[in-house]
Amino acid sequence: MKTTSKVFLAGLAVFALAACSDNFQTADATNNAAVAAGGKLYLNNCASCHGEDLKGEPDWRVAKADGTLPAPPHDDSGHTWHHPDTLLFNYTKGGGTSIAPEGFKSNMPAYKDILSDSEIWATLSYIKSRWSIQSQARQARMNKTP
Ligand code: HEC
User: Fold this and answer.
1) Among 36, 20, 10, 26, which Cα is nearest to 126's?
2) Which residues fall within 8 angstroms of residue 16, CB to CB, at 6 or more apart?
3) Residue whose CA lies nearest to ligand 1 atom number 5
4) pLDDT tops 90 at residue 9
5) What is the pLDDT of residues 34-75, one digit of tens each?
6) Cα dist. 139→38, 81, 82, 91, 144 in Å?
7) How far is CA 60 from CA 25, 43, 77, in A?
8) Whose CA is nearest to atom 12 of ligand 1?
């Protein structure tokens, strides 16, 4: 084999590897690959509580008998889009007790040992893609304030 074709093949292999291991670093509703990957991750990891349709648990504003909160919706009817991306990321990665006040009981699991950072961003990209354009725009403005 000629050297040039070897170099070409090596380049192709590197390209294929890069294409397989997506590395999402933002919640981007316009990134089709992230939204597609996130949709599957959402169904497997989040839908059991937040609902396949992102509607959350019934009566999600009312605390349960044990004092914990039900899972809120992730669509426009909830408050997910009232929060900046970093908060959503940290909440998902660290779980409900990670940024809540001391003693707060939460049923929101930590995903740091279950999903990679890239997978969390993909899941959030999917959630964001389900918001109305208005909610996306308002949340985008919030993202700019530190
Ligand atoms: C076992 C049930 C359960 C699962 C599974 C779950 N959550 Fe939650 N989640 C909750 C509960 C309950 C809350 C309400 C706040 C609290 O109690 O900490 C919550 C709150 C949140 C919040 C903060 C509130 C908001 O609307 O911004 C985010 C973000 C969130 N979840 C994302 C996710 C993502 C992403 C997944 C999947 C990777 C997921 N959750 C899976 C139960 C769950």
Assistant:
1) 36
2) none
3) 46
4) no
5) 999 999 999 999 999 999 999 999 999 999 999 999 999 999
6) 19, 6, 6, 16, 9
7) 30, 19, 11
8) 71
